[in-house]
Specification:
By secondary structure, the protein is α/β, with parallel strands linked by helices. The chain contains 15 helices and nine strands.
Length: about 425
């Protein structure tokens, strides 16, 4: 019973001595691998002849199975890869990872690359010195010698010669001719260059002229003098428009007039006033439900947040006279925009609502579908200022707003006819 143990220990000592002599990347193969049942060797594939005909002979052959290290790939199906990897040390796993490039697009390139720099950093990155070093190294590196020296006028290597064209295609191109008639041919023959350019612009031949010639032809201004077919477009003087004056609306006075329900305050424009505090905006929003004369409220680029927008949604539901609401270019999130559109269902007086150019440029499919469903339930909204990305939402909203406009127009016409009839009856 002692002899087998001695032989096994001697075998282990030999195996350890052999493994110590091998390099580190080859020691992985010395790990114990569980035995796999071998299949009986199969005969080589034979070629099976098929039916022969008088014209051709067809044969088919069975392809040999793929092999790895002299074994069929099917023999490795029963090998547990997790067990093999669990037996490896961290150093061996690093060596194995250097030889494998994971096909994973989510990994950054620095983790997929097998190159690893083990040098210590010499300091922070200096881009200017790095470029100078690369340029210097490129200049100092000698060029590779050419196998054949360059001689002017001689062709090195094989010269490409285009294949000859089919004679039938050449004859077909020669036969193509357009018969315009004597009247058109004489008109084109006697036409000036400016008239030909006008004709090309009318026919849509944009590549035959520059931009100035094209626009001059469309506007019937006459062609610029001295241009012709090879004319170069010169830069035109840029039109300078004066800057819009700053909004000098008194915020505190406007809030006071809204609270007092001033009958003269119908349109309140606070656009582009960036120094309005959150407390003042909150006072203005809280005063809206009690006002019965304000019809247009513009709060573009005033720094509205979700908190203030939610208060505005509650105030809209209680408003009785507001017709136009503009809250573009603010910091309102898409879910809060849905709350504002939902509040329009309870306020039947608002005809125009604008809320584009917010913090999130893209609303998303879910938000757009919610807005579309809410708009389709609204019978008083006539204009909506929102950027909808999906075609389904845009078409549905546009069709419903058009129906609202048509319905409102019919109601106004009917009311107008009714008033005329009543007035005529009393007269």
């Amino acid at each position: 019973m002692s002899e087998p143990s001695l032989s096994s220990s001697s075998g282990d000592s030999k195996r350890s001595s052999i493994s110590s002599d091998l390099p580190e990347f080859q020691r992985i193969k010395l790990k114990h691998v569980p035995k796999v049942k071998r299949r009986a060797p199969q005969p080589p594939p034979q070629t099976l002849p098929l039916r022969k005909t008088s014209s051709t002979t067809k044969t088919s052959s069975l392809t040999a199975p793929a092999k790895l290290y002299g074994k069929d790939l099917s023999e490795y199906d029963d090998v547990d890869v997790e067990t093999l990897l669990a037996q490896l040390s961290p150093e061996e796993i690093n060596i194995l990872a250097k030889e494998v490039d994971p096909d994973d697009n989510f990994l950054p390139p620095d983790q997929r690359c097998s190159y690893e720099c083990t040098k210590d950093p010499t300091g922070p990155l200096n881009r200017k010195k790095l470029i100078e070093h690369i340029n210097k190294q490129a200049i100092e590196t000698p060029d590779q010698p050419e196998f054949e020296p360059y001689v002017k006028g001689t062709v090195r290597g094989k010269k490409w010669v285009p294949p000859p064209r089919d004679q039938r295609d050449v004859e077909a191109e020669e036969k193509i001719a357009i018969d315009l008639g004597d009247e058109y041919e004489s008109a084109l023959k006697d036409a000036t260059q400016e008239e030909i350019i006008d004709l090309a612009a009318i026919l849509g031949f944009h590549s035959m002229m520059n931009q100035d010639q094209y626009h001059a032809s469309l506007l019937n201004k006459g062609q610029p003098v001295g241009m012709g077919w090879d004319g170069i477009t010169k830069s035109t003087q840029q039109k300078v428009y004066p800057m819009d004056p700053p909004n000098d609306t008194d915020v505190e006075e406007s809030i006071r007039r809204v609270k007092d329900d001033d009958e003269k305050l119908i349109d309140l424009n606070l656009n582009n006033i960036k120094n309005i505090s959150e407390e003042k905006l909150e006072q203005l929003i809280n005063a809206l439900p009690g006002n019965e004369h304000l019809e247009v409220l513009s709060l573009t680029n005033v720094g509205l947040t979700d908190k203030l927008a939610l208060l505005l949604a509650e105030a809209i539901e209680k408003s009785k006279t507001l017709r136009v609401l503009n809250v573009e270019t603010n910091f309102i999130s898409p879910p809060v925009i849905v709350k504002l559109v939902q509040a329009l269902l309870k306020c039947r007086t608002i005809e125009e609502f604008r809320a584009s150019n917010q913090r999130s440029q893209v609303l998303g499919n879910k938000i757009e579908m919610e807005i579309t469903d809410l708009v389709e339930k609204n019978t008083s909204l006539l204009r909506l200022g929102l950027h909808l990305e999906f075609n389904d939402a845009r078409h549905r909203v546009a069709a419903h707003l058009q129906r609202n406009i048509d319905r409102t127009g019919r109601q106004r016409r009917m009311g107008h006819f009714g008033r005329n009839y009543t007035i005529g009856f009393y007269q």
